[in-house]
Amino acid sequence: MEEKLTYEQAWNELTAISKEIENETISVDELAAKVKRASELITFCQGRLKATETEVGKIIDGMENQKEG
Predict the structure, then answer these.
(1) CB 45: neighbour CB atoms within 10 A?
(2) Under 8 Å between Cβ of 41 and 14
């Protein structure tokens, strides 16, 4: 995913795609492209969540180490 996306932008786009699929407002011709885009967005969101989890973990570890020192 080359573009600069924020988690919120990706989540909003994913939500919109989901609603289109649920409401059956996507044509058969567009369905494969939308599902592919949704897959890309899910992967992006998972990556951002994992990166944030790692970063927060490091911050918490650093705070705990400061208490001990």
Answers:
(1) 16
(2) yes
The CA angle 14-18-22, to the nearest 5 degrees, is 175
Report whether pLDDT(40) > 50.
yes
Q: Exposed/middle/buried for 17, CB within 10 Å: 0-12, 13-18, 19+?
A: middle
Res 31 pLDDT > 50: yes
The answer to whether residues 10 and 44 touch, using CB atoms and an 8 Å cutoff, is: yes
As a whole number, mean pLDDT of residues 1-26 equals 89
Spatial separation of the C-alpha atoms in residues 69 and 49, rounded to whole Å:
30
pLDDT on residue 19: 94
Which two structure tokens, joined as six digits, stand for 44? Answer: 């992006």
Is 5:26 a contact under the CB 8 Å cutoff?
no
